[in-house]
UniProtKB/TrEMBL annotation:
Organism: Colwellia asteriadis
Gene: folE2
The entry's keywords: Hydrolase
Name under which the protein is recorded: GTP cyclohydrolase FolE2
Catalytic activity annotation: GTP + H2O = 7,8-dihydroneopterin 3'-triphosphate + formate + H(+)
Associated pathway: Cofactor biosynthesis; 7,8-dihydroneopterin triphosphate biosynthesis; 7,8-dihydroneopterin triphosphate from GTP: step 1/1
Taxonomy, superkingdom: Bacteria
Amino acid sequence: MPTSMPDIANHTTAQTEGTLDWVGMSNIEMPIMVASKGESERMVSAHIDAFVNLNDAQAKGIHMSRLYLLIDELSTSSVLNYQTLVALLDGFINSHQELSDEAKVVFNFEYHLRRKSLISGKEGWKGYPVTLTGSLKQGKLAIELSIEVPYSSTCPCSAALARQLIQQAFQDKFASQQDLALNDVHEWLGTTEGVVATPHSQRSVAEIKVKLNNSIDDFPITELVDLIEGSLKTPVQAAVKREDEQEFARLNGQNLMFCEDAARRLQHTMNQAVHFDDFWLRINHLESLHAHDAVSVTTKGIPGGYQP
Ligand SMILES: Nc1nc2c(ncn2[C@@H]2O[C@H](COP(=O)(O)OP(=O)(O)OP(=O)(O)O)[C@@H](O)[C@H]2O)c(=O)[nH]1
């Protein structure tokens, strides 16, 4: 490297002095090997944000290349797990000794899991948007896992209204008949005149964030997905045969929910999951009745924890 190259970051001072909360890079694209509990390590295509604070009010700027190269080393020679995420944050701060004492890194990626069909025994891939965030602020480490889980929700109000129409249609059809033949009713129920109305369902998304503590070695991505899908009961499906679709219809009918119901279910489940220090969740029902969404938000509610 020629010795005469200007080094603005080191040899100039700020035009206007001031400390900054975060300085760094956003949307760095890199392949990253991710270690998740119970899964083989796998490569994901990550979009990464990397930051340190700028504590020196006069310094021109941080050394972005140092942050980039530390992440690059993780990408090419290591695996992302709890320990390497913490080491990365330490590396950010150590590489900026006179400038920074806080660090933050955010990994966004799609994580694919094999998911089983409801009845047929088939399997298929489902991709879940995952965000892993690590920060070291005032010596305090925070590691957070957030995930989005799509599912189906059927409106309980619409179901009740549809049932009423079905009852009315039954009345209209059979009220005048003296001897009701079981076969006639059975056959009629199998027609669109019998089930004259169907409730509306919607693609819904549970967004959930959890604080991880250092008792965790590997990121519990699958565990979190299983908890959420097991609680809601109607996750969207990958491989579907007719028997799976029928079971999905039954599960939807037996798990009618407003966005409040879904949030309370997950709240209950997450309160039982003792090894997550804190949680935040947002339920989004992408309505098919309305053009807008029905939304509910809740947290564990611990002092100093997540805010709604
Ligand atoms: N701090 C800062 N750097 C930027 C920005 N935009 C681009 N860069 C570039 O990031 C590059 C890397 O900066 P440094 O990490 O200081 O590079 P370097 O001086 O070769 O590396 P060291 O010798 O380790 O300090 C420089 O070429 C900067 O111009 C910005 O907004 N802020």
